[in-house]
Amino acid sequence: MRIVGAVAAAVVLTALGLTPGAAEAQQGAIAGRVVESGSSRGLASAQVVIVGTTRGTITDAEGRYRIGAVPAGSYQVRVVTLGYESQVKPAEVTAGGTATADFALAQTAVALDQVVVTATGEQQRKRQLGSSVATVTLASGAPAATQSLTEILNARAPGVSIMETGGTTGASAPRIRIRGASSISLDNNPLLIIDGVRADNDATSNAISINLGGQTTTRLNDLNPDDIATIEVLKGPAATALYGTAAANGVIQVTTKRGHAGRSRWTFTVQGGSVEQKGGYPDNFQGLDAAGKNCTLSSISLGRCTQASVATYNPLVAQSPFRTGADQKYSAAVTGGNDLVTYYVSGDWMKEDGVYAINSLRRANFRANLEAQVNPNLRLTASTGYVDSHGSFPQNDNNVLGILPQGLLGSAFSDDAHNNGWFSFSPKTLFNLVTLQDVGRLTTSGSADWQPFRWLKLNAIAGLDNENRFDNQTVQPNTVAFGSLPDGSRIANRYNINVYTFNTNGTVSFNPLSTLTSATSIGTQYEKNRLQSTNASGAVLLKGTNSLNGTAARFSVAEDFSDLITVGAYVQEQLGWRDRVFLTGSLRGDESSGFGQDFGRAWYPGFSGSWVISEEPFFPKTRLLDNLRLRAAIGQSSLPPQFRFAENFFNPVAVVGTSGADVGGITVGGNGLPNLKPERSTETELGFEASTLGGRLGLDFTYYDKVSKDALLSRVLAPSLGEATSRFENIGQLSNRGAELQVTATPLRMNVAQLDLSVSGSVNRNRIDSMGKLPPIIFDPQRHVQGFPAGGYWARPILGFQDLNHDGIISRVNCKGGPQVAGGPACEVTLGDTAVYLGSSLPTKLLSLGTTLTVLGNLKLYGLLDYKGGMKQYNLTNDFRCQFQNSKAANVIGSDLQDQAACAARLLGDVAGYIEDGSFLKLRELSATYRLPRVVSQRVGSSDVSFTVAGRELATWTKYRGIDPEVIQNGGANYTQRDFLTQPPVRHVEASVKVDF
Amino acid sequence: MNAILVFARRSAGRLWVGAPLALALLGAGCSKDKLLGVNDPNVLLPQQIASKDALPADFAGALSDFQLSYSGSGGGPLTEGMINISGLFADEFSISETFPDRIDIDRHTIDISNAPELTLNFRTLQRARVSTERAAGDYKQFDANNPLHAQALDLAGYTYLMFAENFCSGVPFSELDPNGIDLHFGDPLTTTQVYDRAIARFDEATGVSGATAIEKNLSALGKARALLGEGKFADAAAAAATVPTSFVYKIRHSATTTRENNGVWSFGRSIGRWTIGEKEGVNGLPFRSQADVRTPFAQDSSGGVGVKGFDHSTPLFYSIKYAARDSSAVLAWGGEARLIEAEAALSTGDAVTWLAKLNGLRAAVGLAPLTDPGTNGARIALHFQERAFWLQLTAHRLSDMRREVKYFGVPAASVYQTGPHPKGGVWGTQVVLPIPFDEVNNPQFKQCLDTGV
């Protein structure tokens, strides 16, 4: 295994024209071990840095570290790691010698010296930042029950809302909102940065181009979770001002693992498990009269029949289209290197078979991260990740060809006359509709950190996120009797998406006074995001072929193209006083190809302050308050107008001309304004971090106030203009105000056991402050209305219902707008006359509890509870079951009167009864990991062996009357929120073995 | 003070190194046009189509937009044209699907704030109006004598006709300023004012010197139809008199792209949203049971949706006129001129002329002649049934129902559908299409001026 390290080192050094002999003769090294105070347990992945330089490393699994090629001299070495107090120790390096600096770190709930990567490309300690940054460190791998970036983040970062919108393997894009939705009309997804370069995370470009009914794909989860070292969430403009245009929704910054100097260390992981449907699908009902004719509650109320019996059937249970899926994952990683070069190389292959026979995802990841310390002042880093994935997806949701709709809208009878209980098609038939997606994605970056003088650091990074995607679907002839599908068809859409990044930064540092530090940074950024696609389809497919070549008619071709370039430059000044007071001011200027031609440059100022007041001499030294840091920040960033937003243009179309032949014509494409400017968000943030009880209890509190002005509202154009449906104008204002609290505690800390708790909570108040006097934007039953949360639910309220005649039926007969029957029952459901606000569609309250119990140091039990509340969910599934008259509420006398009232109101044209409380509490994760005692693992030649069993999506508590309140028919949509015949999240139960050598 | 001096000296010392570095870094941002230049190969900008060379594409685009507004499309976007929407509201189509907003159209209980299909139809028709008028304007500027100048005006006139015949009184027409920025919002116009706009376009088309018989007949028939809508029966008959019965103007469709597909076929036979109406809501006409040669229909036994509609319960019958994705849709037929002449005669009580006009048309297709039913009420009913059968699924029926009530005094309850609706509830009281909610984005517009016939 050492050979791998030697080969990697040789390759890099040769490429650089260097050999080990090139190292300066007057150099030495610093080495040592970092352990936990008390237990002397080695701390893995602790960051070790030489203060004032860019030099550093991380500790290995046993807590050892080594920094080579250090010029002889005196240094201060700092060690930081999450959950422990940082330490600084001196090290005297002599030529050819190795200075030893060992550290014993005490646990603490607040880590002020934890480092984060900033927009300048440099690392800073949290104490230097005036804004809140949530950090998830995966020192010993991803949480056991998680399999993706978003699952790792979910419920672990206060203020970050992640809705796991469905359970289709590979095609249930989560909805992520950080501190609420920042924009009314633009994409609210955060910016994604991987190892310093922009990665594609646009909801539109990420979505599969072939209709699945609502489900959609995301590229956010392409990363292998085991490759992630840290995830940092910068939550808003107060923290992202230096990121400028496009950062208003926050930034998710992922850093992948780096190599450790030393011998090659291998990690092998094997994981397998089951993927299960959680169930809960309702029966179908049909009331019948004595003659066996349909007799629903509606018909009874109208006096048309007398119910004699009720038939029930549940095709989703009796002829279950589901299977228990399975997943497997095999991964290997090796890390090592020497004083000059370190490497981290990994590969993983996974497959997951979902709960439908045609639903699966196969994915292989490869990563190679290299770092070369070319000389004491210059470090080069290369980071490359490649993913190759193949997804196979079913149809569902808002889709007559969806699998779940066939059962949920089906019949209460199982005979042939009723299509065996299915609505139109059996799932077996629909399994012929398979949509495939192949992705090859390369995300690579190279950076150089050069420190020619101790006071000057220069940094440059260049990167590319290249995605080649192939969405395709073949429908063989005469497999699905709907529309033109019996002819057979083929769709083949190819996408090429490239995101280019090139950043430079220079930082000048010096101490104007012995107690004052100054760091001045100047930098530039260039980002280019280009999408090109060719979409083709044909029909009348030659049976057995699986290519456009096999189609004989109705050929269609189209291209799509978009290009958005942003260039920016910034300057930042940071002053530090006695390492406990920090003031930072910054200004960034951007220009973008998306801005209107009449708009110039956008400027984004930022200012922040941080004060570690507990380190002041006047601060009382008490065990009741070990640490206290106060912080404040204000900053601006924006979302840019997208491609063509500022253009008036026409689209070419084919048309049958006057001669009868197809000719080219033009039709209105878009109406843009030349003065369009970015949507600017300003955020003010105040907060503190504190720890008490000897570091056993930590608090991290933040209050924020974020206002998006010049909001790029997609203004609906009056149809009478005869132009585009809408155009973007800078006319709105949206605000989010809220608070976040994270409490970390270690209520039990003994040799035999330790209990760690982490509670995260946040509240958010979202309001549209202004819509520029425009009328509401309606996407029924949701609306954007001034003075109310964006995308809130609106409907005529159900003012009351009562079974006046005690017949067990809530009747709409003789209600306003309902059927009028002389002598019939009085109206039993009362509706308001106008639509009123019923609630937010986005969660306004987040709360999570993560509990870790470590027993005898080897057994770790973990549980994660996740609460999301304060929002409504539109139960369009039950709404449709009412309209299709196959629900219990539509057929069973004496069934739940609230359900009946909802259905009666629906038949009167009102959906209020189906806009339900969407709050839920989920047992999101549960895991147990047992680590073999070292003496045992060493007997099998391993340095570390661990076994894990884990479960995800284990239990749900909710008042919601549908199947799962978390589902979203289309997770990629900006606001549209509805449960519409959607596959709910599935349960994973996993077992894994991890072995280190 | 010393500290400040030290600070200044050290700062100055660093600046001479730092400043060039900063300049170098910022240098990358100087060449703005190069750095920010993007191209866009997929679309055309206004300046690219402002020439005589662009006129054919201009007209073709207008024709395409008109096609969408009249007979719909199968995609790009999937659109229900006026044949679809007015036929669904009237008794030509019955609902065989599940979408609530389409059920509302069929049931006459349209909620304007939740009517995406109607909104798209209204928007598409407005877009066709603007496209045809833009094409006409461009021809006037670059090639005024071209017959397509007249044809573009005619098509614009037909868009106004469809607004007047199908929507409530109060339709506004707004304009985007040629600068592409300013929005000029129009006031709601009465139905008569909208008809007058149509007539103005037809008159203007007639004045184009290069207009051929196609354009002239299209203008004359359109004008006659507008005058009929205004209740000016004699003027309508006079305008129609020049149009030969053999004249036909079709909106063509193609199988080449989904946008060119026939929307009536797409929403009907292809995906079964609507079935051919049969005595819908008591007062509806017997489009199937009459087995009339003018209203041919069929039912698939297999293939396509098959025997049942999208809702999997309503029997699906499709019109043989729209049996394929490339079926053409008749926009104007000379026989309608004779029907207008017949109606003018009926309005004056001239039953002989009226019957002769109807039977003249019937004889041409081998139908037995009608006999005079003897009473005015029966003649009116027969007249409008004849029109309905001749002009089935050409976006005439709703305006006929309105005229039958408005000018011939037949109670709406005897013309429009009534009673229990097959999808629940009862038929509502709407007698015209309302203007969708999105129009409130026009500050000049509030609601329909009049929701009656």
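Residues 116-142 of chain B form the longest helix (27 residues).
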